[in-house]
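Reagents: none. Just compute today. aldehyde dehydrogenase (NAD(+)).
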Amino acid sequence: MTTTTPATLTRSTEQLRRRAHDALRTCGVDTTTLPGADRIDVRTPLTGGTVATLAAIGPGEVEAAIEQAHQAFLAWRSVPAPVRGQLVKRLGELLSEHKEHLADLIGVEVGKIASEALGEVQEMIDICDYAVGLSRQLEGRTMPSERPGHRLMETWHPLGVVAVISAFNFPAAVWAWNTAVALVCGDTVVWKPSEKTPLVALASAALLQRAARELHAPEHLNTVVVTDATGAAPLIDSPLVPLVSATGSERLGAQIAPRIAARFGRAILELGGNNAAVVTPSADLDLAVRGIVFAAAGTAGQRCTTLRRLIVHESVTDEVVTRVAAAYRGLQVGDPFEAGTLVGPLFGAAAHQAVQDALTEAVAAGGTLVAGGERVDVGHDDAYYVRPALVTMPAQADVVQRETFGPVLYVLTYRELDDAIALHNGVPQGLSSAIFTQDQREAEVFLSAEGSDCGIVNVNIGTSGAEIGGAFGGEKTTGGGRESGSDAWRAYMRRATNTVNYSRELPLAQGVSFA
Ligand code: NAD
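Predicted 3D structure written out:
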């Protein structure tokens, strides 16, 4: 692909390093203690340069962190849930106070544009609000007993240590979704952030630690472990970890799910997506194009919910392709801290290579590259910026079935809605989906059991940008997990069914007699 030079990135790695360390210090992280023997270099995708060097820990230290978290759980589970909620309330206040510092760290580490980085922190604040309310609503049911003088009910109890494993592209919000809920449920957390983006993790954890100190909560309610997949092994295998909530690639899920199942642990798996939108003849195309461009090009195509496939009715395909391509040409690609930039960098050389390989494969399969795909030169050899790519495909192809974690949008054409739904569901993943239509019948079919097979099914909005109030997650190789709102909290607790006999008799269920 050719390279274009719209602008040189004036920001240096040294400036970004200072910005990150200032934000860390303000959030209470002592940056003088960061370097260590077994080192992890944290690089910024903006320039490709190193902005911090951290000590990495091994499996022994992770095991010790689990043991401490277990001890903390033994105390925390007895604290009344509404009192636990007060800790999360204070965390939310501190996150609000430090919103810009945390967003700065996300900007430096991940390369999100300012508005999206702030949005990620807002999501953390929102889930804290939600969890505070939840702390008074961890309710069980009572059911009528078939026996006189008996009461049947269920109670929900804390589970234990929750391992949170998070991906680079949501380096803080995923932790908050899990941790705000886990803490009010009475659990404790050991968090393994992506080793590529540990700085905002350290800052977020420092804020929680400050809240815990202020409220005299037990120590070790939440511990960050900066380590790689090898170091993380105890999080997957330890019997002291009843729940593993893991966010990442389908490969991650395939590696850890059998190990967790082998010890009868629980898993919340939030894995890769290959999300699609159907555009029907009745769609409001002004609205659809705006929704498509944000969902496909936003976050440089590096969201799990990024729109990767567009399934367009043949009568509007030309117009949709022309309008999306025109919008793509107008997107400002470059420095994510610069006002007006809508597409920041890809996360390093491997991500860029994956995008180029996918485009080559798509063209070899008969696809046509309509717009984008070229690298944008910002004056740093180790920084990878690309223009979002739009590719029309003559038919389903292997490359369309995979998640390529970058801004590549494939366009497929359909004639009948049933065919569109078959194309839509004909991939291994099942995270997020959308239909753009003004025909209520089409919308309802897409939402029905015969429609989209995803965990998130939208009408007239794109595939990305979920709110915390709903349960978030997907089906098939996306892993089946649900976290955040609705009744996702139940996964963080154990249910006990209780039968209480307040009579003077001992009738047996089902009329059984034993005398
Ligand atoms: P990744 O799978 O490379 O890594 C994710 C995390 O898992 C990291 O912390 C990594 O160190 C850890 N990890 C990897 N192998 C492990 C193992 N064997 N044992 C323990 N830990 C292990 O993913 P990534 O490149 O950081 O993130 C991008 C991927 O994450 C994409 O596929 C994206 O769709 C997915 N994602 C999914 C969601 C969702 O909610 N469904 C959200 C964000 C990202």
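Residues 114-134 form the longest helix (21 residues).
Action item: order primers for follow-up constructs.
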